[in-house]
Amino acid sequence: MRHRTLGRTGLRVSEVFFGAMGFYEGGAPDEHRAMIDAYERAGGNVIDTASAYGESESVLGELLAGRRDRFVLATKYSLSRDRSDVNAAGNHRKNLVHSLERSLRRLRTDYIDLYWVHLWDRRTPLEETMRALDDVVRAGKVLYVGISDAPAWVVSRANALAEWRGWTPFAGLQVPYSLLRRDAERELLPMAGALGVSVAAWGPLAGGVLSGKFSGGGRHAGQDTRVDPGTLTARDHAVAGAVVKVAAETGATPAQVAIAWTRARHPFVHPIVGAMDAAQLADNLGAVDVTLTEEALRTLEGAAAFEPGFPSDFLAECEADPQVFGEGYRSLAAS
Predict the structure, then answer these.
(1) Is residue 324 predicted with pLDDT exceeding 80?
(2) Catalytic residue flag (residue 53)
(3) What is the superkingdom listed in this entry's lineage (predicted)?
(4) At a CB cut-off of 8 Å and minimum separation 6, what does 67 contact?
């Protein structure tokens, strides 16, 4: 597995992140350890969890004992720690401080490599969040920061504030991204590319729909899914079928093809993969060795229509019209 730098930092992160959301206390500790071992052997170094993922942090804290520094450990705050306490949730300073201290204890570490804001909190000023994040970075408790599930304008404004005031900017953005959920291509991915922000893509298998589970394909098609088969639409089946078709043509599994697609167009996108066991994880990690041809990409993306919408489609039409920017604009843009 190859490595890239996280955003505009010097931190080296693997092409694929490992999601430990499914690690829970009382589960299968030997299997959890086997998954981390398999991920490390493959060259992976980013493990992603959150304060709201049950006992995942505590389980990871035990499993990483003695090798914690070899990993880029990422966790999140924002979601409620106590539903009866109005200040036990949100992106404000009080929740950040208490959530971070709890995560540090549970993870058995004195610092977090990558601390995510779990989602945008409309009720907390961005200035407060960015300043509070910068404070914990300066205190050495957090090394880098990112944000998950937020509009493009929020990320842009937050990083502008950080630049103007000398605070730590967001180096990463976490969003849902798969062949069945391409909304991020409208604003979020272009913004991330322009600002030099790395993207962690969650749900690359669309809850298991693209794993071949419902299409009869793949060696590991029986993997876990959070989707009720009865809710699948004709579009879902069409895309899943296209994934199985390309998988058969390339000799890969459907899961590998679906994960490889998330990386094919944008080199700064890092899919987050999880698994039920080490064998399934190894299969998913095999996506890094899958190269999709232009024909395969057309097959996958042609299975279901996706419209960027305004302003993307309107601006593309304007750029193609010589009456707007002149005859030489297209050659200039391509240079």
Answers:
(1) yes
(2) yes
(3) Bacteria
(4) 40
CATH architecture classification, 3-304:
Alpha-Beta Barrel (3.20)
Q: Give the CA distances from residue 182 to residues 132, 160, 292, 320, in Å, rounded to whole numbers and listed in that order.
A: 32, 26, 18, 24
Q: What pLDDT, in 10s, does the model give residues 255-271?
A: 999 999 999 989 999 99
User: CA-to-CA distance for 145 and 117, rounded, in angstroms?
Assistant: 8
Residue with tokens 């804290």: 61
The single residue of 24, 39, 53, 144 carrying the catalytic annotation is: 53
The structural domains of the chain, with segments of one domain joined by +, span: 3-304, 305-335
Condensed to tens digits (0 to 9), the pLDDT of residues 150-194 reads 999 999 999 999 999 999 999 999 999 999 999 999 999 999 999
Amino acid letter, residue 178:
S
How many angstroms separate the Cα of 158 from the Cα of each of 46, 145, 173? 24, 12, 12
Distances (CA, A) of 94 to 87, 128, 227, 287: 7, 10, 36, 41
Burial of 329 (0-12, 13-18, 19+ CB in 10 A): middle
**How far apart are alpha carbons 254 and 169 in whole angstroms?**
36
**∠ CA(283), CA(285), CA(287), 5° rounding?**
90
Which tokens hold the place of 228? 């009720």
Report the SS3 class of residue 60. helix
Confidence of residue 28 (pLDDT cuts 50, 70, 90): confident
pTM of the model as a whole: 0.93
Q: Which residues pair with 175 in a beta bridge?
A: 201
Amino acid at residue number 106 = R
Q: Helical H runs in the chain?
A: 29-41, 56-63, 93-107, 126-138, 152-165, 188-195, 234-250, 254-264, 278-285, 294-302, 312-320, 322-325, 329-334
